[in-house]
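Consider the tokenized backbone below.
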């Protein structure tokens, strides 16, 4: 039977979500990488922080590159007992490329600098997608909790 109190959260007193405005410049990418790593380490989240950092950087880079204007983009990190969800909000209502399943023409060209971000997100996350917001869209991914490492004897 579902828990009537809602989804399982981190222990009381620990922050369960962060919402951070980032500049609409390339400087947002390293800032976002540092923020996601810090957020996950701060509460000792068991989601894979290396993967979270990589995928967050991809989402932020896409938002900076593919949306016009200088309005900030927003990074939202939500920590759950089952892992974490990361969203990047931007002002463009246009959906990103296909995040569900790749088509036959979606293979990235190995000689091109761009075109691998959505493939990485589809491949390395447990779920991903996008949704419209009041001011544009949010593109998101989730990562599961990592199993604990075996103890040595």
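A designed sequence for it:
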């Amino acid at each position: 039977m579902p828990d009537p109190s809602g989804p399982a959260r981190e222990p009381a007193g620990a922050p369960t979500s962060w919402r951070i405005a980032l500049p609409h410049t390339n400087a947002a990418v390293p800032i976002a990488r540092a923020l996601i790593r810090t957020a996950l380490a701060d509460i000792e989240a068991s989601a894979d922080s290396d993967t979270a950092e990589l995928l967050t950087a991809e989402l932020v880079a896409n938002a900076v590159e593919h949306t016009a204007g200088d309005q900030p983009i927003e990074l939202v990190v939500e920590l759950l007992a089952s892992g974490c969800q990361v969203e990047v909000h931007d002002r463009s209502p246009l959906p990103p490329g296909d995040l569900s399943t790749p088509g036959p023409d979606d293979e990235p060209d190995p000689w091109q600098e761009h075109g691998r971000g959505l493939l990485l997100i589809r491949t390395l996350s447990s779920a991903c997608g996008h949704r419209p917001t009041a001011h544009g869209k949010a593109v998101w991914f989730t990562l599961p909790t990592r199993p604990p490492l075996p103890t040595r004897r």
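The longest strand covers residues 136-144.
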